[in-house]
Amino acid sequence: MSKVKTKVVPFPLPICIAGSIINGKINYATYGCFGLLSPRPTTYVYIGSVEPHYTNTGIKENGYFSINIPSVEQMQKTDYVGLVSGRDSDKSTFLNHFSDL
Description:
18% of the residues lie in helices and 26% in strands. The chain has 101 residues and is of the alpha+beta class. The protein has a three-stranded antiparallel β-sheet. Strands 3-4 form a two-stranded antiparallel ribbon. Strand 3 (34-38) and strand 4 form a beta hairpin. The radius of gyration is 15 Å and the shape is globular.
């Protein structure tokens, strides 16, 4: 039997919405690659993103981001956040958020 190369993930993965602040404005993006690197002594999490994503600008600019696990009721908004770029649309009012910055 020969090896088969595939780009399809053979199992469902959870998704997250990552938040960042770009030029003082909140922006969101949907990611399918995220997880926990280390729970102790400090919790480290990661998101997998490609360089041109607009959200990366805010992460690099500020050095932090949020990870939010959407509920089933939020799937339509999660799709929107993943399909529309913050370069073209203001997503700051699309989801409820809080900030103590």
